[in-house]
Design a protein that fits this description.
single chain; 404 residues; mainly alpha; Growth Hormone, Chain: A; 21 helices; 0% strand; globular
């Protein structure tokens, strides 16, 4: 069986595997309007279940990604994909409420910790120079496709077969990903540096690198916005539809619409990276973050506006919130100390996905504090809070003193 030998072929293999591996990524968030009444979940409890996925990721990613400096990333990837399959299948057959959902979603986060960044490490071990930044953009774009794929499965599958079938089907995706890697992934280990002499969790060389840490902090803030908004997107659409005179008739259901809009992240992240290559990473990242903060606030005021305007604003926000993603990650990788790329990516992902964990939880608390997800003022408060956090992104880059 032929193995992926060119940068494009290798990126395609890893991106396709990632898409299938993320089949259960958004299953819970897409079905929050189902779970909240069925399990009598409060807004904050639903936020915890959404956020614990990223807590699981956060707990595992420092070890699993750092290990890629010492052992082949493909081994970590395959083992983690099997954990991901177990998490979805376990949710399908054993989840009964808040606590069991927490366990299986945390396990799903651990699975992602062993696939997303280790997959990116595997890619950057094989690809260098200008190709590296571009292939990172295409790989990270695959995350948006995987998110949309997961939302589509959840939206269509739940209506036809119920939520347990959705999670059972999602459990097959990571098994397909393992098969793809086994058939097409190169087996050689091209890592250019010997394993670090420090222990696996010694991140001091990374923490001392101001350029890398500036991008890490920007990534944390980026993820706060992305996952705060995405985790509550279906609920937001359902609320906006309830305020329309016709109930939003003539549009796709909320989960399907969210899936379609998540795909807007694919061209956005690629275009954003190309702009960054031409005009400078920090300048481009800061500009996109400021624009996204302004759009975010506007979305919070919009639920009762004509639904076509609501949909257009959400679509714009889905583009701005992801536009700097590849540029931020490529910047962290480029700034990594020699021999510590895996450790740098571990710090990047650990701190970055702390934002992914905090975003949905903080958004849920903001909704609940301001009156609950069935009130317009609560959405204004939650989106405004998210936008304020986004304003810290350009400051992080400035304090890091990274070159333009």
């Amino acid at each position: 069986m032929p193995r992926a030998a060119t940068p494009i072929a290798l990126t395609a293999v890893l991106a396709v595997a990632q898409i299938f591996g993320m089949a259960g990524f958004a299953s819970f968030t897409a079905l929050m309007p189902v779970f909240m009444p069925e399990w009598a979940l409060s807004d904050s409890e639903a936020g915890w279940i959404s956020g614990v996925f990223y807590a699981g990721y956060l707990g595992a990613v420092p070890v699993l990604t750092s290990l890629t400096d010492r052992i082949q990333p493909r081994r970590i990837y395959i083992a983690a994909a099997l954990v991901t399959a177990l998490s979805s299948l376990g949710f399908a057959f054993a989840a009964e409420g808040f606590w069991t959902a927490l366990v299986f979603r945390a396990l799903a986060g651990i699975g992602l910790a062993g696939t997303y960044m280790p997959g990116l490490k595997l890619l950057t071990d094989h690809v260098h120079g200008t190709d590296q930044s571009r292939m990172v953009a295409f790989y990270t774009a695959g995350f948006s496709i995987g998110s949309a794929f997961s939302l589509a499965i959840a939206g269509s599958g739940e209506e036809a077969f119920g939520w347990r079938a959705v999670f059972a089907l999602a459990g097959l995706g990571p098994l397909i990903a393992v098969t793809i890697l086994a058939l097409f992934l190169p087996r050689e280990d091209p890592r250019p540096h010997p394993p670090p002499e420090t222990h696996v969790l010694d991140f001091r060389p990374v923490l001392r690198c101001r350029q890398a840490m500036a991008y890490v902090l920007a990534y944390t803030i980026h993820n706060f916005e992305v996952f705060a908004a995405r985790s509550w997107l279906v609920v937001y659409f359902v609320f906006a539809q309830s305020l329309q005179p016709d109930g939003g008739k003539g549009w796709w259901n909320a989960a399907t619409l969210a899936a379609a809009f998540t795909l807007l992240g694919v061209p956005s992240t690629i275009i954003g990276n190309e702009i960054a290559l031409r005009f400078g990473r920090t300048r481009t990242i800061a500009a996109i973050m400021l624009v996204s903060a302004a759009v975010c606030v506007t979305v919070g005021f919009a639920p009762a506006w004509p639904y076509a305007i609501v949909v257009a604003l959400v679509g714009l926000h889905m583009m701005t919130q992801i536009g700097e993603s590849a540029a931020v990650t490529a910047g962290a990788i480029a700034a990594a100390p020699a021999g510590y790329r895996g450790a740098t990516m571990a710090v990047h992902s650990t701190l970055g996905f702390s934002g992914s964990f905090l975003g949905p939880v903080a958004f849920g608390f903001a909704l609940e504090f301001a009156g609950g997800s069935q009130t317009a003022n609560a959405w204004i408060a939650a989106f405004a809070m998210t936008a304020l956090v986004m304003l810290l992104g350009p400051l992080a880059l400035r304090l890091g003193r990274t070159p333009a």
